[in-house]
Amino acid sequence: MKPVKPSFDFLRARLERQYLDPDFDPSTGLDAAGLDARIEAYWDAHSGEPLIRTRAALLELVLTAGRIGVDPDDRFADHIETGSGIRALQEKLQKAALAELPSAEDAERREAWECGCFDCWLDLSHTTPDWRSILSLGVCGLRDRALAAERAAKEEKACEFYRAAARVFEAMRCYIVRLAELAEKRGAAIVAPVLRALSERPPQSFHEALQLAYLYHEVQEIEGELVRSMGCFDRLYIDFYRRDIASGALTREEAKELLKFFWIKFYAKTQGLQAGKNFCFGGLLPDGSDAVNELTVLAYETYRELRVVDPKLTMRVHSGSARAMLRQVADCLKGGLTATVFMNDDVLFPLFLKRGKTPEDVYDYVAIGCYEPAIMGREMCCSMTIIFNLAKVLELLLHGGGDPATGIRLFDVHEGELTDFDAFFTAYLDALKLLLKRAMHIERLRTAMWSRVNPSPLLSGTMADCIASGRDVSEAGTKYNQSGIMCAGIGTLADSLFAVKRLVFEEKRCTLPELAAVLRSDWAGHEELRLYAKMRLPKWGNNLEGPDGLARRVTDFAAELINREPNGKNGTFQMGLWSIDNNRLFGKKTGALPDGSRAGEELSKNTGASAGLDRRGVTALINSVTKLDHTGFADGSVLDITLHPSAVSGPDGAELIVDLVRTFFARGGQSVQFNIFDAETLRRAQREPEKYANLQVRVCGWNARFIDLSAEAQEAFIAAAGGEA
């Protein structure tokens, strides 16, 4: 007879707050202060040893000595005191490594960021492990695989890696045993046997698989790398689900209840205030069939009933995707649950093959982070190593290579050579190439310090390629090792380039020096010219060849340059055409531009138009965006579509959303996401936030409660909805 416990709905309020004040058992281990002291003491005594060995030992220390907690009513157990010692050590090592970088290059980076052109860093926040290995082998199997590799290895460095991997998985097994013992002590009759099983063998049930996945997620983040994809959920878990249903061990409703207990943990961990964890669904299988199954349907039902902003979901779509499943997702969007990004297999498969990935690997791609495509378990995509402001390069060009706001000069321009638009456009591409090359050079120096900052035996130990090569992920142990460059502001750039062409070289309303002077003054005394540039000239997002053609020429040039550039870890850089919310951050560091924008205004977001300037409707917007070659954006590209609720009301509203997705993808778009709201509703939410606590918006690659956003961000959404900002 199954143990009877309170339902999810009864416990929900408590579960949503479980990490705010966790119920640790003080008899089970050290508190944060004690743990941090032990970590510091261990590091002081062992800092001369190989770093991967020390990192494994410190993770072992946390997992075996940190105090733990188990809620007897929860269906999952994972609470552990981690302290901040491992994170502090990571920051200390990174600071020391950065201090060794050439001072000239570091000064270049700081200047480039101060004026809002680019920044770069070591990206440890965009990873996904090999979920197949985790679920098929379990912690014992992962440990034993590393030990077997160590016995066969001949190089001591490889042996050191294998021993570190085996050590952390054995430590994780001990952690699971500790949780099982406390669960038994506290009468957690449902989760205790699940934990006992996982300490001895791979998962066999749906419950065991979910429990192991969440424990792994938590332990990797303790190690120091954010888990930004939980894998292809429906294809990873369907066999567990079907076995349980067939045997009678689980009913469909019980599975849904389990999934609610599981997913609420991701929300509870962040309270919806971070970028969320991605679960992928659908897509093509190697036999050409659709991966959508009964678990896909169940998961979206669960998501609809939960109504939380985290986790976030990816729906992979191809030409043969079942319309019924897309309709189910669209119904969620209609209801204000917009935490899904659609990704296009029919574009991404050719993209991956063009980038040298093998056909058998591409079927397991996932979205890492927001919408950055990568191969699950075989790739370290590091999708955000550089953020780059395309529009800033134009501003610098107009001012002779210098930034009017800071006085920083990043390059030199001979204005006398800019005699026509072709020369001006060539000068822009030359400056873009110079600054991208500079950013990639600086990033290669940072990438080279990875193994001195954050070797990752746990993450690496899940990767079959790392086990085969004897190398950690920090030393390019995986099959694919890429570095992403986020290129922001394409709409703002296209509009500004076209404005220069029209205002200066065609209509001759001003000369280049005169335009530069007007922009330095932030259009002071030239409001008529500003309004003409902003409201009368053709704009990106309206299916107009002028700005659209310029966007295509720039993105083709940038993709060709970036995608062939070595990244220093046996891979290349990859171009992404997206911005997330850096369009606001970059906008604050960008002066007035020829498109009519004032200094400090936000740039266009992702591949979309500048706010309120896609005046010809969503079809024209789609036509503009799909004039670009999205197979060149190996680090991802995404379009945001905002719809008024009245456009999708009634029984056919979801069909409109499906048709938009189908149309965008048939024309070559890569990824698309939606917001469905009206300006008046958002204004009411500002005035009466307590009545709109559950109103969600799609911020970038994640959802948030509207009332949690800053006033500035709220105004940006109101402007996007067609209201006055």
Automatic annotation (TrEMBL):
Domain spans labelled Glycine radical: 605-725
A molecular function (GO) term: lyase activity
Ranges of residues in domain PFL: 1-598
Protein known as: Formate C-acetyltransferase
PANTHER family in the record: DEHYDRATASE YBIW-RELATED, FORMATE ACETYLTRANSFERASE 3-RELATED
Record region (Disordered): 591-610
Glycine radical sites (modified residues): G701
InterPro entries found in the cross-reference section: Gly_radical, GRE, PFL_dom
Highest taxon of the lineage: Bacteria
Keywords, sorted A to Z: Lyase, Organic radical
